[in-house]
Specification:
By secondary structure, the protein is α+β, with helices and mostly antiparallel strands. The chain starts with a helix and ends with a strand.
Length: 142
């Protein structure tokens, strides 16, 4: 069995939730399973006292960041090229998207806005609400 096949299989399995695999989920699949999109007010409440956010970027880098109540962000990450620090800001726009403007100590940066969806205590991010939009797992911890 190839290492690539094994790695891809493990990645797909790791995103399974309650018996339903969400490795390549879309908004349509999330809503069919009863996912609820957070409103602007719900996102503000989630972030009111600060919240830890964790996930994996499209590049494969993992990160853990503290979205602080004052709108600042600090954290760290790990990529194939090594570890890095994160800093920047977060806000919630009028459309109800969580927007991040981040820099890394490695010299990179990331600007992104996304909707947050929940199925039970599992969270997902999407860049749009269209049914075929990819949904990516994300974690929030109080």
């Amino acid at each position: 069995m190839s290492k690539v096949f094994l790695r891809n299989s493990i990645a797909a399995i790791s995103f399974c939730v309650a018996g339903t695999c969400l490795a390549q989920s879309t908004v349509a699949e999330l809503t069919a399973q009863g996912a609820k999109k957070f409103s602007k007010e719900e996102l503000q409440q989630l972030h009111a006292a600060g919240v830890t956010q964790k996930g994996t970027l499209r590049s494969g880098a993992t990160y853990k960041q503290q979205n602080k109540a004052d709108g600042s962000v600090s954290g760290n990450g790990q990529s194939p090229r090594g570890s890095f620090g994160l800093y920047g800001t977060w806000k919630i726009d009028d459309a109800g998207k969580l927007c991040l403007d981040l820099k890394t100590t490695a010299g990179g940066g990331l600007e992104s806005c996304f909707f947050v969806w929940a199925i039970g205590n599992k969270y997902f991010s999407t860049t749009a609400e269209a049914p075929d939009t990819e949904a990516r797992p994300i974690e929030f911890e109080k």
